[in-house]
Amino acid sequence: MEKSIEKIQDLALKIRNHVLDMTLHAGVEGGHIGGAFSCAEILATLYGSEMKLDPKDSLNPDRDRFILSKGHVSLVHYAVLKECGFLSQDDLDSFEKNGSQFSTHEIASCQKGIEITSGSLGYGLSIGVGIALAAKNRNLDYRTFVLLGDGECNEGCVWEAAMAAAKYKLNHLIAIIDKNGQQLDGFTDDVMPICQLEQVFRGFGWDVTVIDGHSITAIQKAVRAAGAGKPSVIIAETVKGRGISSIEGQVGWHHARITEEQYSEFKQALEE
Amino acid sequence: MLDFSAQNLMQWSRMGMRKAYGVILNELANDHPELISIAADVADSANLIALKQRHPKQHYNAGISEQNMIAMAAGLAKEGSNVFVTSFAPFVSLRVYEAIRTLVCYMDLNVKLVALSSGFSLGVQGATHYALEDLAIMRAIPNLLLLSPADTTEMAKALAFLAEYKGPAYLRLTGLPGSACVYKTDYAFDVASNDVLRDGTDMIIFATGTLVNESIRAARLLQKQGISAGVVNLSTIHPVHASKLAQMCMKYKLIFTVEEHNIIGGIGSLLAEALSELPNHSRLVRLGTKDSNQVAGNYSFMMEKNGLTAKAIAERVAEEYSAQQ
User: Fold this and answer.
1) Which residue in B has a C-alpha nearest to residue A168's C-alpha?
2) Using CB atoms within 10 A as the burial measure, which of A228, B86, B88, B230 is most buried?
3) Mind listing the pLDDT tens digit for each residue in A216-239?
4) Which run of H or of E encompasses B285?
5) Contact at 8 Å (CB) between B29 and B37?
6) Helix, strand, coil shares of chain A as percentages rounded to 5?
7) What is the count of structural domains for chain A?
8) Same domain, yes or no: B167 and B202
9) What is the pTM of this model?
10) Separation CA B64–CA A156 (nearest Å)
11) Which residues of B178-196 are buried (b: 16+ CB within 10 A; e: fewer)?
12) A256 Cα to chain B: minimum distance (Å)
């Protein structure tokens, strides 16, 4: 295995560990563990090898932009930002504490690597369209990455953005859908079937790739292939709760509190 | 630089706020390369086609997708643009309220929401196209500057101000082509104050939008009956200092508000809130639409039906005045 892949795997493990720590310390407030774990490899790969970002120059106009549209998994974003030098351990320790900037849903702070305030689902792709349009307008080369949930695709605004991105040929806009098959009330197929995401996006004029969302090499390959004349969407097939076999794919882990016993059990599971 | 010549003032007035908006924004875009216009399939209605042709990189058509338009504007503004988004008033306020609250105002982005043809301006097009609640809801969002100009001259002043202003704003446009000019010559616009346009001793009338002119006309009618009514143009609606407004009311025994808006939540409510800060205050009478659904009708029909013509305002004011004597 390539050394860089090992490093990204290690990063994914570290951020899952942070997620568990934050969720435990949040106590009764809990955390969105399931959807955080399903996108751990996506975030680790983007931040570990694909995006042009520098915590010492976080406002550089040429930086790549990362938009967390599924804002409820902020804790996994905070975790990767900590590992990449944007946030401190104190920041993570303040997760969901009274008066903290690091609430369940993200509050924008470009200085700290958080581009937008998110949590109200369905807006990230439209904001990404605006950011990508700004790059095109000013002949800047940065790319705009937007991470969405598949449940989030219930929102009509996602499809308004899909049309606009195709219209403006935003080839530096890359949407990644964390398709873990679940949302708050259960399985996406039961709550609101979206049929074939792949065909729908293709119909809207996007370049579409379907990958195993836990395969670092597949994520890298898909990201590197994006950008050919039209917006790209990577449909990342993932498993909610991935990394802890006892909760993988189980309904009930969208948002949860964990006990000390569960914490120990989950920590051990992550090491296996 | 916008030219406030007598000729331009007259031309804008003839066009009305909606059509003059595009002409004025076109001029402002010329001087402000960071200014971007986005319209939700209303570029023609808002007279923005010339801007699009002259500055193709400064105008986008978002199609009939107002939520996407607001979020796109947030993305562009985040990257340094001053974005003017527009649609008919209900669709750039009520329909996209939460997006405005979260993406524009909470994120403190440089997005200007231009609400075309608010109130009853769209006449027979009916209830879906009336905006009689926008002041109420927009006023409740922190960090949103809310302006409601009295005429096309003040609208041009407000637009020139907004082209420089950093932060979120909502500009409420009312009236029809040919609505009368309140400001007939160039003047100094001050966003922080609301102009006293007419002094009076018996009562004070606070009005907004094109009803400012109706209120001035009402005051003239009242003068013929020996009643002296002051008129204030309440064009800056949020944020306002409640104490300043209350101060303006101190010497009057009667206070009126006149608005093309539901009496719940608009400038009538704003005055009620301001007065409630005082230990004692005079009677406040709120004129506007009652808390009921509206039928459709042309502008003058709707104004008459809702008691918002100069004549109806004067009659109501005189009635209240004589009841108090």
Assistant:
1) B60
2) B86
3) 999 999 999 998 889 999 999 999
4) strand B283-289
5) yes
6) 50, 15, 40
7) 1
8) no
9) 0.96
10) 12
11) ebbbbbeebeebeeeebbe
12) 26
Q: In chain A, which residues have their Cβ closer than 8 Å to the Cβ of B103? A: 116-117, 120, 123, 127
Count CA atoms within 13 Å of residue A199 on its CB side: 3
Which H or E element spans position B87?
strand B82-88
Query: How does pLDDT run across A90-147, given as a tens digit for each residue?
Result: 999 999 999 999 999 999 999 999 999 999 999 999 999 999 999 999 999 999 999 9
CA A122 remoteness from chain centre: 14
Q: Within 10 A of A229 (CB to CB), how many other CB atoms are there?
A: 8
Using CA atoms, how far apart are residues B17 and B152, in angstroms rounded to an integer? 5
Which residue of B41, B60, B61, B68 to mutate against A (max A Cβ within 10 Å)? Answer: B68
CATH number at residue B296: 3.40.50.920
Distance CA A159, CA A201 (A): 9
User: Each residue of B15-32: pLDDT tens digit?
Assistant: 999 999 999 999 999 999
Is the per-residue pLDDT at A3 higher than 70?
no
Per-residue tokens: B249: 């009311």
Q: Domain count for chain B, please give it.
A: 2
Residues of B in contact with A119 (CB under 8 A): 102
For chain B, say whether A115 makes contact (Cβ under 8 Å).
Answer: yes
Range(s) of the domain holding residue B35: 6-172
Give the best residue of A59, A65, A123 to mutate against chain B (max B CB count within 10 A): A123
The token pair that represents A248 in the structure block: 């993988």
| In a shared domain, residues B275 and B310 | yes
Together in a domain, B80 and B12? yes
Separation of alpha carbons B13 and B19, rounded Å? 10
- Domain CATH for A156: 3.40.50.970
Q: What is the mean pLDDT of residues A16-23?
A: 98
| Position A195 confidence tier, pLDDT thresholds 50, 70, 90 | confident
Determine contact, residues B204/B168, Cβ cutoff 8 Å: no
Q: Is A162 on the interface with B (CB under 8 A)?
A: no
Complex-level ipTM beyond the 0.90 threshold:
yes
Same-domain pairing of B205 and B167: no
Q: What are the structure tokens assigned to B274, written together? A: 């301001």
Selecting from A108, A156, A164 the residue whose C-beta is nearest the C-beta of B72 gives A164
* Residue A1 pLDDT grade (very low, low, confident, very high; cuts 50, 70, 90): low
